[in-house]
């Protein structure tokens, strides 16, 4: 807007304040009052003046009349919109002709009366008021004409339509890949098959990993911990994150497919990754190993995509709404955001592909990229379950971890109905994650280009009534090291009072800082997205974001020895089970070890003696923490099970998952994982376990899903 236009708007606000106060003077019922004060200004239908409109805007008029017709109690008149300089002062150009206006506020004032609805015809216009006695001819003594130009309608083109058909089709493909991520992350057996359920894997090989994932899920559903070694737990966390992110990703693809136009196109949408973060936490890798590092990095990129889609969907809806209404301002605002969020999704997707390439190369070098579960064997076992039910040994396994008889019966019915992916290996999982982005990448590129074209066409004709913000920030940083971020803002009114809100945790709330500058200390490595909202006194706001690549500051502690070697040992009532743990920190930080039973802290130190109080399963957790406040803790969880279940049939059967080993412990930190052993180096008791355990583990997976549905 020009300086002249800005001065006009400021003068107009003073006039409007006078009108709102009401003009003094008597209104005599039954006779016309003398002509005193009559005026009119174009307004924005929201208690503010406006002198430039787009073809898709509505025109309102605010003003005052000063003649009350005989027998009336309010000033009344016909309001005309005519071309500037028209020889005929009553040559109204609006649909339906002149508008009849009542001035009942104060001494004849009226506010924001709608006089011209879109589409408007470009040009320059005057406002004419024809007051009583309505003679059909303009009377300068009683009527009013603004003279000159009261307002103009720009010759901007109607808002371009954004073609969302392509991205909807691509989103349908992305939805299929997102569901595949969930299924594969759930079934992927090679994640931690040597280190999670140590007393099962000796006989089961790759199939035992399914038990590991199943038990992890079962314990999550019941808010209990699972028996895991430290390194394998990190990778299990990674797959839990991927599974959770895939659920959120599916919802966003569904939203893209079903997006309707949104008429509230004057408001911009911010990023909100709260759902994705809740499904994905914790984010820290926990060990400097290639597999968990790659998993967490991939999950972060997926979460950023989820947040971008979460904002992109309503922005596209609002852009469609602006097109329908023909609003150049709405199109400009929403095209800016549509482009920004499409580009954020693209950036996160490219980062995801790079991480997947790195992880695939590592797994291929270890020969485990295409290793996986024997799907045919698992399908055969599930088919047999439909006919024969669970064996006594399988029931004992389930009961030893806390499943009730009712739970087991539910599993007997539901398990045979469960679909199994055709291929369950690392290659399939990485392929699903790759496909989730590649399927929508062309549509995102096209959408960003369309949005930029719309912005470029409409911005020159759109007066921006609120702030336009950007963030000055470094491109990279380090965990624990403060950095300064600052806001840069443009506003048509240089004296506008602005308020600032920062969101550094991507929860959608701008409550992490105030003011135009922010001191920000990253707390976790990886890609960090920071958002800023700037708002003026009129309520107009802009929301922008920036991304920062954060490097780790140090290494977390790692267990180098944990005993006993069995993560799910058996014990009789009143029997003492002795635990010990030793951890080291690569940075040389001091390490503290804490012990807890069923979530209640019991002791500190390298050893802990647990007395089995009853025949229920109990979780014993050991946590190693260093002195770095930004470093994640190491944790390992044991499940102490009642000895009555050790023989596979309530104490009376043969076989079973195996009892405690006589070994002296496990080197939990030995070696880099290869995708099959997770780098655990744990001792595995030979001959332990049973071929029925994978089916029992799959039963626990189904039980988890059912309990989640009930809790939800």
Automatic annotation (TrEMBL):
<feature type="compositionally biased region" description="Gly residues">
    <location>
        <begin position="650"/>
        <end position="678"/>
    </location>
</feature>
<dbReference type="InterPro" id="IPR013783">
    <property type="entry name" value="Ig-like_fold"/>
</dbReference>
<feature type="compositionally biased region" description="Low complexity">
    <location>
        <begin position="679"/>
        <end position="691"/>
    </location>
</feature>
<feature type="signal peptide">
    <location>
        <begin position="1"/>
        <end position="26"/>
    </location>
</feature>
<keyword id="KW-0732">Signal</keyword>
<dbReference type="InterPro" id="IPR006311">
    <property type="entry name" value="TAT_signal"/>
</dbReference>
<dbReference type="InterPro" id="IPR024038">
    <property type="entry name" value="MYXO-CTERM"/>
</dbReference>
<feature type="region of interest" description="Disordered">
    <location>
        <begin position="648"/>
        <end position="691"/>
    </location>
</feature>
<protein>
    <recommendedName>
        <fullName>PKD domain-containing protein</fullName>
    </recommendedName>
</protein>
């Amino acid at each position: 807007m020009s300086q002249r236009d800005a001065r006009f708007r400021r003068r107009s606000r003073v006039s409007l304040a006078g009108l709102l106060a009401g003009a003094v003077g008597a209104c005599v019922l039954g006779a016309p009052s003398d002509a005193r004060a009559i005026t009119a200004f174009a307004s924005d239908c929201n208690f503010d003046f406006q002198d430039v409109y787009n073809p898709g805007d509505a025109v309102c008029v605010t003003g005052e009349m000063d003649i009350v017709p005989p027998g009336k109690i309010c000033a009344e008149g016909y309001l005309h919109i005519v071309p500037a300089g028209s020889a005929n002062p009553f040559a109204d150009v609006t649909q339906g002709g002149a508008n009849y206006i009542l001035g009942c506020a104060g001494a004849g004032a009226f506010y924001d009366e709608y006089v011209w609805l879109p589409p408007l015809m470009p040009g320059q216009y005057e406002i004419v008021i024809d007051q009583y006695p309505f003679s059909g001819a303009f009377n300068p003594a009683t009527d009013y004409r603004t003279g000159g130009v009261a307002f103009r309608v720009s010759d901007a083109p109607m808002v371009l339509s954004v073609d969302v058909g392509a991205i909807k089709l691509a989103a349908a493909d992305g939805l299929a890949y997102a569901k595949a991520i969930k299924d594969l992350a759930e079934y992927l057996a090679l994640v931690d098959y040597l280190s999670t359920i140590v007393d099962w894997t000796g006989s089961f090989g790759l199939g035992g990993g399914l038990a590991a994932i199943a038990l992890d899920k079962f314990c999550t559903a019941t808010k209990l911990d699972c028996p895991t070694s430290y390194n394998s737990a990190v990778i299990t966390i990674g797959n839990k994150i991927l599974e959770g992110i895939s659920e959120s990703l599916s919802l966003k693809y569904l939203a893209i497919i079903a997006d309707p136009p949104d008429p509230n196109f004057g408001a911009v949408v911010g990023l909100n990754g709260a759902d994705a973060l809740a499904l994905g936490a914790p984010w820290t890798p926990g060990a400097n190993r290639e597999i968990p590092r790659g998993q967490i990095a991939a999950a972060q990129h997926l979460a950023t995509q989820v947040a971008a889609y979460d904002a992109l969907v309503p922005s596209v809806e609002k852009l469609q709404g602006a097109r329908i209404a023909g609003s150049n301002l709405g199109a400009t605002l929403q095209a800016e955001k549509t482009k920004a969020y499409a580009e954020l999704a693209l950036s996160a997707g490219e980062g995801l592909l790079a991480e997947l390439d790195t992880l695939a190369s590592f797994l291929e070098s270890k020969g485990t990229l295409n290793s996986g579960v024997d799907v045919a064997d698992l399908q055969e076992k599930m088919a047999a379950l439909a006919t024969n039910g669970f064996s006594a040994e399988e029931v004992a396994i389930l009961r030893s971890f806390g499943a009730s008889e009712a739970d087991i019966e539910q599993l007997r019915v539901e398990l045979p109905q469960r679909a199994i992916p055709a291929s369950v290996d690392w290659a399939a999982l990485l392929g699903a994650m790759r496909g989730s982005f590649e399927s929508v990448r062309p549509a995102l590129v096209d959408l960003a280009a369309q949005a930029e074209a719309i912005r470029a066409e409409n911005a020159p004709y759109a007066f921006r009534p609120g702030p336009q913000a950007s963030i000055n920030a470094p491109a990279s940083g380090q965990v624990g090291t403060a950095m300064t971020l600052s806001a840069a803002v443009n506003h048509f009114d240089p004296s506008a009072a602005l308020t600032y809100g920062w969101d550094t945790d991507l929860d959608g709330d701008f409550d992490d800082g105030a003011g135009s500058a922010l001191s920000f200390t990253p707390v976790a490595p990886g890609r960090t997205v920071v958002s800023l909202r700037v708002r003026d006194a009129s309520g107009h706001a802009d929301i922008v974001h920036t991304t920062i690549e954060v490097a780790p500051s140090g290494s977390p502690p790692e267990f180098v020895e944990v005993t006993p070697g069995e993560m799910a040992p058996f014990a009789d009532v009143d029997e003492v089970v002795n635990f010990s743990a030793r951890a080291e920190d690569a940075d040389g930080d001091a390490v503290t070890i804490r012990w807890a039973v069923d979530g209640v802290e019991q002791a500190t130190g390298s050893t802990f003696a647990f007395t089995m109080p009853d025949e229920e399963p109990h979780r014993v957790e050991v946590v190693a923490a260093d002195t770095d406040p930004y470093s994640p803790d190491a944790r390992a969880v044991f499940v102490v099970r009642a000895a009555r279940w050790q023989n596979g049939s309530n104490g009376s059967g043969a076989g079973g998952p195996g009892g405690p080993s006589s070994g002296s412990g496990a080197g939990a930190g030995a070696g880099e994982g290869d995708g099959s052993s997770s780098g655990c180096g744990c001792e595995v008791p030979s001959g332990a376990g049973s071929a029925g355990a994978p089916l029992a583990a799959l039963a626990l997976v189904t039980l988890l899903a059912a309990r989640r549905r009930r809790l939800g």
